[in-house]
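Quick one: Protein translocase subunit SecY from Kytococcus aerolatus, structure tokens please.
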Amino acid sequence: MLSSFGRAFRTPELRGKLLFTLAIMALFRLGSHVPTPGINYQLVQQCREMGSGSNSLLGLTNMFSGGAMLQLSIFALGIMPYITASIIVQLLTVVIPHFERLKQEGSSGQAKMTQYTRYLTIGLAVLQSSTLITFARNPWQLFGGAPEACPTIMTDDSLWTVSLMVLTLTAGTGLVMWLGEQITEHGVGNGMSLLIFTAIAAGFPGSLWAIKDRGWDKFVLVLLLGLAILTIVVFVEQCQRRIPVQYAKRMVGRRMYGGTSTYIPLKLNMANVIPIIFASSILMLPMMAAQFRTPDDGTRPAAWIEWVSRHLTMGTDPVYVLVYFVLIVFFAFFYTSITFDPDDVADSMKRYGGFVPGVRAGKPTAHYLRYVLNRITTPGALYLGVLALIPLYALDALGSIGDFPFGGASLLIVVGVGLQTVKQIESKLQQHEYEGFLR
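--- reply ---
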């Protein structure tokens, strides 16, 4: 494998793409440490040290931004507005006929949908930056702890300063989106995925170092557990059910077409990390409402706020665990049904003379595909739910929040993006008649 990396860097074209990708990733990490105008960086660090560290409300966004969210940097929003916009546009293709027609138009329609995604990303960035600044006015909502422990982190809360902060955070999101597109076009791999990979992987050393401070026994135990989880995740992410497809021979003019055999690959985890993001976002809503409705004068909050704070805050509370697990399983089936339509696949196969051996073309093929899809989605959804719950119990055992890097959305993204990037580098190596990574 190391020799293959050396050969990759000795290939001029591939070396340029790899160096360009690494440079963009380094620039992304540099921007994650540049403070936003109007924010006192020293006060932010003090509040992070004095707070309780319980950032469950914005934990997912902070993870995707590589810790830039809780540092209030110019890349504080990270890639989350683009991810949200992409998911919304993808869901709208099922609801809005115009988007569905664009999806069927090929590259030209995809270019228009990409443009819509960019516009929606900027709109969401304005909304999310305004929300983040609202939290910044009450820093204890971001960093935890008592309100008097961290009274302020803003140098000025005038309209001009707030407007400049919103503009800076929105521009930072636009720049991150542009950097990701540059990697996709001129580098190696999917740019947006690699930026998410960079943000998540950047937090691993700090998390492992924090675990080491709690004792070498826990550090070794976490490494062994992480290695076991990593092995399982890599195995499951590579699992797929291949449905054989045979195409009948047909004459078009004087030429014979068809007669070939192929297969439809159905992954065990077709929804990838999306169900975890959806479930975390849904559970974030009642916690956010409770945060905004909590009185600041020290009086006792309403009964529903106390119930939400007690049962729907990230932890091992049975109510939270059950709701989180059920939501992940539900969204796994929901998102899979949106991204893979058995009726559309069956109609396309019938149109081109394809059929599954032993199954009649048309509706019987659609029923068969739906049956197989449900059978493989069930263990895939349960696997996602268990994987997402591992950090909760691991953090509870370690007595810390945010110090367990192996599990949930983070490991899924790191493994998925890593495998995808390695395969792309391998394919480029094979184009130059070199031996690939995987032997």
